[in-house]
Amino acid sequence: MLAVALAAATGSFETLSRLADTVLWRYTSNTLILVVLVSVFTAIIGTGTAWLVTMTRFPGVKIFEIALALPFAFPAYVMAYAYTDLLDHPGAVQTGLRNFFDWGPRDYWFPEIRSVEGAAIMLTLVLYPYVYLLARAAFLQESATANLAARTMGRGPWGAFFFISLPMARPAIAGGVLLAVMETIADFGTVSYFSVQTFATGIYTSWFGLADRGAATQLAMCLLVFALFLAVLERLQRGAARSHAAGKRFESMPPMQLKGWRCFTAILACGKPVFFGFILPVALLFHMGLGSEQDLFSPRYLAFIQNSIILAGSAALVTVGAALLISFNARLHPVRLSFLAGHISRIGYAVPGGVIAVGLLVPFARMDNGIDALMREWFGISTGLLFTGSIAVLVMAYAVRFMAAALNTLESGLGTINHNMDAVARTLGRTPLNMISSVHIPIMRSTMFTALLIVFVDVMKELPATLIMRPFNFDTLAVQAYRLASDERLEGAAVPSLVIVVVGLIPVILVCRSLARDRGKRNGK
Q1: DSSP state, residue 387
Q2: Is residue 354 within 8 Å of residue 216, measured between CB atoms?
Q3: pTM, entire model
Q4: Which domains does the chain have, with CATH numbers?
């Protein structure tokens, strides 16, 4: 971040001035439109479906518990490829309409998929699982005591949801929405493919098109300020609110059985995100990949899969481990410096991966060159590049990029643990480390697993930082998909894209089963 800020301050402002006179307002308006649309839709879809599968029962609810999280395995740019192939002018839908009604190109109107609204839909379909997973985990940790009290005071099921369940789960919901918003303002693949001009596309245009690193970093600083504002706003709106279900007497309330039109509405509400966010795009990608010449079981593709899993697993462990240190430090030492560290750690999520990559490469390259110069002068040997182009620095870039995902997830779990439990543990002679290992971590096991899942899948889908910082001959599935799509070989790009989805499905299913087991334990099953 310091490298980016220094480059922004020392660079020329000439390009930024020209952008302000031409397209800067378009960058701002499109970014804000995307943020508003994605935040509203992800909050509604994620919270509503999480409550339905947790608090009610209807046919297929056990399937929906897992299926609703499956779109999280999709990269947004892959979703854009699939739906463009289906809905664009030469796609199957418009071609079928023209053939059936004998229409010409100008005889009908059809929504434009390559638009701000189209990009918002693509991002919503892949980002609502952020809210769904965190909201469902929060609903599972809620005791029925408060809901039963509300029911005895005359509140109906919906009243208990709006006045009890929703406020108690608000920290988790707000954290999920904030993650979706940060992912939206940092997205490059989707908006670039749809030709929607945002701050992210402006950064890449300035960096690679205009070759002006100063203008790119100045636009990146705008995103940094906006991300920090979002983090502070989310913390202020949450205020001093806390939910302390964990550690209190837990009473399970039998889920409400839905019948008639309510049952049909619940199935439709849960089925639409699954169909449009997973079933249909998988079918489209599978159809596109059938005609490709990509051999999925060749040693080359197996190496892509292995490299992707190594990077994603390593980055998930490092990032969640660092997030645990930051979040536990803020809980044990609630001072301004601790909270400031948490806020600063979050803002990397809103920065395009390519900017973070360059921000790390510049200081590490200088350090490598300095070490090499010293070793040449003192011992007459060359050390080469020790850090630049290594997996370690790439994992560091992932940790900067996805720290907010891990922190928001862990803090939503920590927020359900009553501080009185800490005091009791300390009076019994527990050290802070023992208290964390014997009290906090066992309660937060499902939350920690969710954090590992989110970071793992995010790294599997990450593209810009991987393109810039990966070691030589260390390609991943995302890099391979990007190369094929850049060559207009969408059929071939569908194959590695499907593998990314399949690999991402495994942890998604595991975390959903973990949440189901957690509910079973609380219900005494």
Answers
A1: S
A2: no
A3: 0.78
A4: 2-522 (1.10.3720.10)
